[in-house]
Amino acid sequence: MADRVGFVGLGIMGRGMAANLVRAGTALTVYNRTAERTAPLVELGAVAARTPRAVAQNSDVVIICVSDTADVEQVLFGTDGVADGLAPGGLVIDTSTVSPTATRHWAERLAEGGVAFVDAPLTGGSEGAEQGTLSIMVGGADADVERALPYLQQVGSTITHVGPVGHGQVTKLANQILVVSNMLGVAEALMFARASGLDLAKVITAVEGGAGGSWMLSKRAPQVIDDDWRPGFRVDLQQKDLRLVLEAAGELRVPMLATSLISQLYQPLLRDGRDGDGNHALAETVARLAGQR
Amino acid sequence: MADRVGFVGLGIMGRGMAANLVRAGTALTVYNRTAERTAPLVELGAVAARTPRAVAQNSDVVIICVSDTADVEQVLFGTDGVADGLAPGGLVIDTSTVSPTATRHWAERLAEGGVAFVDAPLTGGSEGAEQGTLSIMVGGADADVERALPYLQQVGSTITHVGPVGHGQVTKLANQILVVSNMLGVAEALMFARASGLDLAKVITAVEGGAGGSWMLSKRAPQVIDDDWRPGFRVDLQQKDLRLVLEAAGELRVPMLATSLISQLYQPLLRDGRDGDGNHALAETVARLAGQR
User: Fold this and answer.
1) Is A161 helix (H, G, I), strand (E, B) or coil?
2) What is the pLDDT of residue A2?
3) CATH of B5-164, one of 3.50.30.80, 3.40.50.720, 3.40.50.300, 3.30.1360.120
4) What is the mean pLDDT of the segment spanning A108-126?
5) In angstroms, rounded to a whole number, what is the distance separating the alpha carbons of residues B179 and B82?
6) Beta strand pairing call for B116-119 and B122-123
7) Ramachandran area for residue A47 (φ above 0: left; ψ -120 to 50: alpha; else beta)
8) Active site annotated at which positions (chains A, B) (predicted)?
9) Domains A5-164 and A170-289 share a fold
10) Which chain A residues are closer than 8 Å to B100 by Cβ?
11) In A, residues 234-253, which contact B (CB 8 Å cutoff)?
């Protein structure tokens, strides 16, 4: 018999993923803190539950997609949490981006009740969630990842099993280090070229094919030139992920020179209420330092 | 009548470029400070001259490929320099990576003698120079760039006219900001993942196709994992280019947070005599901070 699947967290990412699961024929029970958000899923054929516990009671596999470490903790182990409802033999798939250390603790705690755990943070934005083209970095035991795979394939197109529980989160955080470092380089290069009076579009064309090339340069530098701050990934979520990087690195006692600097450079944007701008708005802080804003 | 062309500077980049010019049928007069380096070019059919002035006296167009601002200054305006030998109507193409401000001054000074100037710094390494696949960022007046184009096309495959004199240099320096920022991101992400016990090859595979992707991640991160420090671009030349960035930015009074930090992180490599390692050895400084070296 196919697994009954539960889904907790119907935010900007979760709602697209849940819809793709239902459309693929998965029997889905859903929960969201703001209950109205379940309506579009129920219309598609999902069943709404009143608590994460109720989701779990009706499911063999529970997928979680919430914002931060404390939210996953609450969903799993809070009042009426998933851990109280999921029978032994169940599986939790956490697609949120959260602390690797907390992730390992949750997996251990769930294992005591006979429940398996896979961390599967994702990238690809809300478009990726809607279109089912997310990239997913998976940590977990082989058998658990194999069991999770059919559901991950219904929401993502690039799925990489990187190691045991927690390694998915570390990989996601490493990805965030790359994203913001590349963005700082883009911001500093554009600011330098602008201060020198150059045509920035020509600069991008001249260098993007070579050793200075990056996804952020090709996709976000043109947005910067156009003052287009619509988000691929929001500033407030970027800053939250950098906090997770710095927390995890702090536990390991390794200094993060680039990431800590960049985290500071995001602060003025949050102070100015630009939480919902794209993470490429980092270029605005850098431009401000150059007197260009 | 076709231009007679001169070439000054037969180092690791210049010798490949000069050879491609000769092979393309260009009548070439060459000069190098270490005279023996002219021999392979003479064998191909070039004529060796004893001074930059002698090169210029025998040429309509003089291409320069040396290391630093002071070297170009010496070649142009030193004793027996190009400026003393080139007749009015001549053109200088400087492919070195040097100060944008000095570049503009040289162009003005040469213009007084009726000589035109184009700055055309390049990327693509010694392989690119040998194979004629360099990327070239060109600054100069339209007519001068048009005149330079046939020769640039004999040594490079991607040629972008970015603006007036000096703008080629600014674009090259912007490229260097991108290169080292992306490399710092790669170094910090790998160090973080290594400290967390991950399989670094799997991390690269999981993230290189997404928003964290870059040329440095795809080409250099695998070298870092293999402790392969063979140079695509040498540490000492990278540090020289960062000095040019910081000098130019200093003149503009714009702060370069990433580039200044990264320039400091290259210092331990130079102290340890790793001048000839590739610029991806930045990962070694970052790993050292994490106690991984």
Assistant:
1) strand
2) 78
3) 3.40.50.720
4) 96
5) 33
6) unpaired
7) beta
8) 172
9) no
10) 196
11) 245, 248-249, 252
Other CB atoms within 10 A of residue A87 CB: 12
Beta-strand runs (E) in B95-248: 116-119, 122-123, 134-139, 156-163
Judging by beta carbons within 10 Å of its beta carbon (0-12, 13-18, 19+), is residue A166 exposed, middle or buried?
buried
* Among B22, B9, B13, CA closest to B154: B22
Give CA torsion, residues A208, A209, A210, A214, to 10 deg. 50
d(CA B47, CA B52): 13
Distance CA B271, CA A159 (A): 43
Q: Would you list the domain boundaries of chain B? A: 5-164, 170-289
**Hey, which residues 12-51 in chain B have their CB within 8 Å of chain A?**
none
Of B178, B202, B217, the CB nearest to A163: B202
Confidence of residue A236 (pLDDT cuts 50, 70, 90): very high
- Examine the residue annotation and report whether A219 is marked as an active-site residue of this protein: no
- Band the pLDDT of B1: cuts 50, 70, 90: low
Say which residue the tokens 């619509």 belong to. Answer: A230
B119, B168 in Cβ contact below 8 A? yes
CB-side exposure of A102: number of CA atoms within 13 Å?
18
Query: Which residues are CB-neighbours of A7 under 8 A, at least 6 positions away?
Result: A14, A17, A18, A21, A28, A29, A30, A31, A41, A46, A55, A62, A63, A65
Beta-carbon contacts of A241 under 8 Å, excluding residues fewer than 6 positions away, are A97, A172, A173, A176
Q: Which of B25, B175, B217 is nearest to A204 (CA)?
A: B175
Chain B CB contacts of A164 below 8 Å: none
Taking alpha carbons only, the member of B51, B65, B59 closest to residue B27 is B59
| Closest CA relative to residue B177, chosen from B259, B121, B243, B120 | B259
Query: pTM for this one?
Result: 0.96
Instruction: Tell me if B188 and A217 make a contact (CB, 8 A cut-off).
Output: no
Q: Which of A145, A157, A177 to mutate to test the interface with B (most CBs of B within 10 A)?
A: A177
B274-285: average pLDDT: 98
Average pLDDT value for residue range B240-266: 98
Report the greatest alpha carbon distance in chain A.
Answer: 66
For the domain bounded by A170-289, which CATH number is listed?
Answer: 1.10.1040.10
Give B170-212 as a DSSP string: HHHHHHHHHHHHHHHHHHHHHHHHHHTT--HHHHHHHHTTSTT
Q: What is the ipTM of this complex?
A: 0.96
Contacts of B180 in chain A (CB under 8 A): 185
**Mean pLDDT of the region A52-74:** 98
Query: Which pLDDT band holds residue B18 (cuts at 50, 70, 90)?
Result: very high
**Cα atoms found within 13 Å of the Cα of residue B242, Cβ hemisphere only:** 26
**β-bridge pairing B91-94 and B61-64:** parallel
